[in-house]
Design a protein that fits this description.
By secondary structure, this protein is α+β, with helices and mostly antiparallel strands. It has 5 helices and 5 strands. Strand 4 and strand 5 form a beta hairpin. Helix 3 packs antiparallel against helix 4.
Length: about 200
Amino acid sequence: MAVDINTFFDSISKISKVQRVLIFVGTVVILVGLFIWFIYLPKTKDIARLKTNITNLENQIALAKVKAKNLKKLEEEYAGIQQELSLALKLLPTSSEIPTLLENITKLGNESNLEFILFSPKKEVSKQFYVEIPVSIEVNGGYHDVAVFFDKVGKLDRIVNVMDVSMKPTAKDNTDLHTSCTAVTYRFKEKAETKSVPKKAK
């Protein structure tokens, strides 16, 4: 074994300097190649995979934040709609409240010193979620009294719109006016009214 080793070193000593450099460079290249192939490239793939996972997670987090923000906005909008609906329910009377509301309108007219000539509810007009209840009104009285009456009607808790107002003197050289108008109030449809009509079979 010692002879073999000595022979090995004797062989190396006989190699030229250029050959030694080439052997050294070749050895380094082989070692670097092995490092790159077995260590660096696998680690690079792992790093790239981890970067991809991190990017995906960051995108998911950003999307979740957007959804959370939109959810909060939707919840706020829903709360606002609920509040508006509650207010609308207070402003629109139910069927059972309509007679009392109409009675209050005539009471306001009497309190305003008006003489009722006509107070006649017309046919209801059905809309998608509510019903219009028009009432033809004719009264005699002074302009100021009529204005006071309209102002009181406008201040009712329930919605009452006065439209198609027409005024003319009750007689020549008379300050009293004959006023005709249509007062329109509204009510929510009852559940039975909002039920959809079954479609006919084809």
